[in-house]
Amino acid sequence: MSTTLAPGAAYRADRTRVAELNQRELERFAARTGRSKALLDRARNVMPAGTPMSWMAGYYMHPQLYVAGGEGARFFDVDGNAYVDMNVADLSATLGYGIPAVEEPMVRQFRNGAHYLLPTEDAVVAAHSLGRLMGLPFWQFTLAASGANTEVMRIARHITDRRKLIVFEGKYHGHIEETLVKFDGERVVPEYQGLSGRRSEDTIILPFNDLDAVAAALESREVALVLTEPALTNCSLVLPDPGYLDGLRRISAETGTMLCIDESHTHGKEDIDGYVDLLHEFMKNIK
Ligand SMILES: Cc1ncc(COP(=O)(O)O)c(C=O)c1O
């Protein structure tokens, strides 16, 4: 098949061929993942859809896999197939799997007790070291970014004595009623079943990189918090226009609105050019 297109011509995929290729790959996949399939059949008896978290069942484009372990940039399924993990557990395992410098101190600490509901000296050392790295003075810890963003929203509401929240199209900020929302053409509504429509009413969704839209929405002084990633990483990658983040800072300060830069994926690299360079470097080094 020729892949050369006349200038300006639109490429039309041969859907029948795509379906054939997809079927062939699914069959290959099934032939080498028999143990995963058997585990899925067992798992369905004790977990809805056979997964410990329901989103895992619909997240991937292939039948369910069960993982046996990982090493560096790879993980292995229960059938012994190895995969290079380009997603590194949604960036929560950025350094890779089974890295001794990460795992050994964690194992040592587990042997000494996983938690005590009281602070330890390590918490003080970690807060100091984060302060040095990120240039921010005060630190609190949560078990997940959803928890951190929930706290941020409450703090902003308390400080400003306002209720509303601005997020941006293409966002994801975690398992939070107010941010699991979409614009249905008329108003902001829950994105999924089981969420409270009332909580959606507090959220305004704006286009990213549009400072005029933010300025107009903040004019009423009803917004407690603008919540954004420095670059949107949950809808492919959308970089901020030059000056956009500084503009957000300025408009928020002028209107007494709190601004939170959610760095769950960008890991303190609000200097986004630096982040993209780092990402390229990281991809080059995956072995
Ligand atoms: C930008 C952003 N914020 C928050 C979250 C929620 O993270 P967690 O699953 O740790 O609650 C995610 C998860 O991917 C994220 O990408």
Detail the topology: elements first, then pairings:
Elements: H1 15-31, H2 34-43, H3 56-59, E1 67-71, E2 74-77, E3 82-84, H4 88-91, H5 100-111, H6 121-134, H7 145-160, E4 164-168, E5 181-183, E6 188-190, H8 197-200, E7 203-206, H9 211-218, E8 223-228, H10 244-254, E9 258-261, H11 272-284
Parallel strand pairs: 4-7, 4-8, 8-9
Antiparallel strand pairs: 1-2, 2-3, 5-6
Helix pairs in contact: 9-10
Bound molecules: pyridoxal-5'-phosphate (PLP).
The site of pyridoxal-5'-phosphate has 14 residues, from helix 7.
Instruction: Give a quick account of the main beta sheet: strands, pairing sense, barrel closure.
Output: 4 strands, parallel
Shape: globular
Could you give the distance between the termini?
Answer: 33 Å
Q: Would you identify the CATH H-level superfamily of the domain at 145-282?
A: Type I PLP-dependent aspartate aminotransferase-like (Major domain)
Q: Write down the secondary-structure element order.
A: HHHEEEHHHHEEEHEHEHEH
Distinct ligands: pyridoxal-5'-phosphate
